[in-house]
Amino acid sequence: MPNSVLWAVDLFGRVYTLSTAGQYWELCKDAQLEFKRVSAAMQCCWGIACDNQVYLYMCASDVPIRRREEAYENQRWNPMGGFCEKLLPSDRWSWSDVSGLQHRPLDGVMLPSPHWEWESDWYVDENFGGEPTEKGGWTYAIDFPATYTRDKKWNSCVRRRKWIRYRRYKSRDAWAKIPSKDDPKQLPDPFNDLSVGGWEITEEPIGRLSVWAVSLQGKLWYREDVCHPNPEGSSWSLMDTPGEVAQISCGPHDLLWATLWEGQALVREGINRNNPKGSSWSIVEPPGSENGIMHVSVGVGVVWAVTKDRKVWFRRGVNSHNPCGTSWIEMVGEMLMVNVGLNDQVWGIGCEDRAVYFRQGVTPSELSGKTWKAIVAGRECDRSHSGSSSSLLSAGCFFGDEVKGGGESAPSDTDGSSEVERPELDQPLPSESSDNSRNPDESSASGPGAGRTTEGAVENTCPAEGRGEPGSAKCPNLASSPAELPWTNIDLKEPKKAPGHSAAGFPETTSSQGLLPLGLEESYVLDDHPLWAWVSGGSCAVEAFSVLKWFTVQSGLSPSVQTLSLSLTPAQTAAWRKQIFQQLTERTKRELENFRHYEQAVEQSVWVKTGTLQWWCDWKPHKWVDVRVALEQVTGHDGARDSILFIYYVVHEEEKYIHVFLNEVTVLVPVLNEAKHSFALYTPERTRQRWPVRLAAATEQDMNDWLALLSLSCCESRKVHGRPSPQAIWSITCKGDIFVSEPNPDLEAREHLLPCDQMFWRQMGGHLRVVEANSRGVVWGIGYDHTAWVYTGGYGGGCFQGLASSTSNIYPQSDVKSVYIYENQRWNPVTGYTSRGLPTDRYMWSDATGLQECTKAGTKPPSLQWTWVSDWSVDFSVPGGTDAEGWQYASDFPASYHGYKTMKDFVRRRCWARKCKLVTSGPWLEVAPIALGDVSIIPECPATNRNGHSVALWAVSDKGDVLCRLGVSELNPAGSSWLHVGTDQPFVSVSIGACYQVWAVARDGSAFYRGSVSPSQPAGDCWYHIPSPPKQRLKQVSVGQTSVYTLDENGKSFGGSEGRWNLWYRQGITPSYPQGSSWEHVSNNVRRVSVGPLDQGTCGIAKGSRPATHRAPAGSTCPTMCAECPWGLWISSVTAAMAGRFSRSVFQVWVIADKVQGSHSLSRGTVCHRTGVQPHEPKGQGWDYGIGGGWDHISIRANATRTTWSTSREQEPSAPQETHGPVCC
Description:
This is Tectonin beta-propeller repeat-containing protein 1. The protein is 8% helix and 33% strand.
């Protein structure tokens, strides 16, 4: 569950926040203003102060809000003086925007408000189409407007260059007043209500928000252009309404409801990506004719309302297709207001006690929830009273009953931390009132006694009906017997047209303290229970069934516990534990001595587990066959265990079997299957064949049990236990499963190379898309939803929970991904584009390739572990762009698609996306709050001495910001904070080498090198633009000790032959020139590349010599190349490698190949190791194929296990390579 916050306003106008991981309300840092109400979204909150002005509170973040301002300088060629600023009368402005229609001089570009500041002065952008331009940044064309090029030609009559300047939003963690475009000092109309939503209409990195406001005159206003790069928006637009609006609520997607002064509700229809304001209004009548709607709140697919008689109502049948819903359902309880937050969770303000209530039991299948529960968290400012309060409570155990509230019993040890909903102060248990006889069903369903957790602690599941005076508050709904079970049914009832009985009310609460010590000041008692006026959960993400700390009374330790703490000091406790441990150890030794002369009773034991599974037959008819399986495990007298798996099947009424020795199994991997719970067993022979043993279970639990048992047996056979070593190799399948393999010194040896197909992989708990590690044990991962995770040091989790898992460092983990299908159409001369295609066309609803039919109704989540969390929606972020409706056009299937229609476009397609969610567990903790797209950790080799230095970690956010993590170490792998590194454009990939050389790839496919990065200057100073390979767009980069490898995304191999994703090597990298000289093609058909720390390159140093002087690289901070600087370490490692102290094959280049042909079948996504890579041959000689297919990511950067090399064997001939040439399709 992410660490999000709940916003609230008390009666004095002070704004507080309550974290989902905290227990106290924290006062907003900027507390000088008094507010009426607030509306929160992720990372921001909008509010209306008592002066009726609108304010914005942007939460502080390590990533700044930056916006780029652009201006173009235009010039025309003159025969007399060459290019000059004198243009023709018909030309554009000499200083203009990109279109040339708007005059835009550099000194005329102003800051939009006082809350912005300039980062730097204007400078020329020398990047054009992913390639650097000539000095000056000029691009040339024949005329305005035309196609511009980098090179100047004989007919280039005009030229232009782009000037850039960034502005930064500086008002963070403070309330910033929103100015008006017409008059910065005044709003168009004083406001009394506002609502923020619409962030799910457009995906990141746009981050658009819909801000709606209601004025005192009943007018409705919309804030234009509110998005992540422009949090303030630009101006207010007046919206037409059929009546005077009193209050408004905007959901995260396309729901927008408003209330009229007459008591009716307005529903906005037609809200979508292209029209966030909507198109029309619909009127919804209130539940009853006498009491109109006073307040309304909407979520993704729910609508809650409060009528003028304080009753709470739930709207049935609301969705995107029917925003008006069908009918009202009355809920038990009386509220002043309600608010729907993330995940459709609901909060409310009590009518009588003005406490904040949380709706428990809200799930996707039960949107109305089950019961209200009061939040009794204290305020941060009240912590000063906790010391005196706790001391008085401690004194209570010595004074006896005279310090207890009247009628209450002494609290037990568990009372101090018991969950309560409405803590009562010195009030005896009341008897039933006459109000209870009016509606006995309602009172029993909402009675606080039904939620009793421990004796003496009463939990109220909803506000009670009685409205007593302070000091005599009644609780008429209290159950008569403490043994009654709590009610769990939904407290719903159909609305009544005639005036009915009032719903349950809220008994007043005067204190949340169970004890009233003598001498306590009355002023402190009165201020102990805050009174709230407004609550907003738009930035509070509470998962269903999550455990919160909001409902625990923080009253210090109970008297009995405090008494115990006074009698035993920590030193006495430690001595007592040590004495007990010594006694148990001596007793064990004595008992073992008595039986030492006896012989071993049992020399070996046999353990067998049987079951029924399905097995995929390897031969015709190639189908699933019901089989019996038996796992036989033999334990010898020395404790060694060996296991065999038998699979019994029937062929022509004859029973046969196949067997697999588990000590030969290299990996057990779950298989991505929509219909079956299946997994595969690989051995070295079956890895070479690309033909594993596939088994399927009837249920998910059966598959998890067999996976855990078989995995445990495999680990016991190979004596692999516990957490992975710091130098382990990490990989991830396309399903998101995480695997590790312990390194072997022969894995990188030149002679007697260990084949990759003999590596043993074991599964770790969790679910990730990307994982990176280094040899100091720091491991980071990124999920499909761009959430960053850090490894905690445990092992197991998920399906291995309990049997083959650590008992600590296992935490819940969730992930969200999207499933995509395509709607295809062909143009018809009569009807236009239609779903009827030619007989040779692809399916009209298909996957991206068009080979498989995929309809909305028939498409299921990737596996049975995933569940849908959204409906189908058009994806506008596909490569190539789309039109306003999401269509892409082309001449035929398949072809190059573009986002606009031409005369030659006869087909079109549209991408639909739907989100699904997986919930699991593993040794991972979330690193909030910035979402990441890529991460890289510095690799380290044994020769590197980094004592005292933190681990360098770089990352790219999902918006393209480059970040450097500070404070990362073995003891604190999560680090402390992010340091933003400025860029001129969004980036997609970053990698840091062992010598602090940082390379990155921009979104346009260009490469960059970061200069002057060192432990003392972790962010470096500037970027150097590196030209990409000719006509190639890069997508990923990986840097080892000295070498740099990249991947492109063009889809065709170098040289014109068909292939995908070319692998490139950067030549000419030396300490004096770290940017290198040129790119050299290595191979095609590569999905992912990972370069390890054991790759020392040459820099022109003579063998066995130490360089006396070297020119410092561009941006280097150490011109003398001392042994402590990164480049000095590089030269030291190179000198050691050239001197022959290590293996001659010291390069580590591992990839995920797209296609690998085995002896039996073709696999996609195969782990491959580049062989023959050495300093004088960095491209290598061949590939060693490992486990696959279905693999999507690998990280070799933690493997610093090196094979020593004897100098006497230096002249021996090299071993032949297994496979020559590049990987081909």
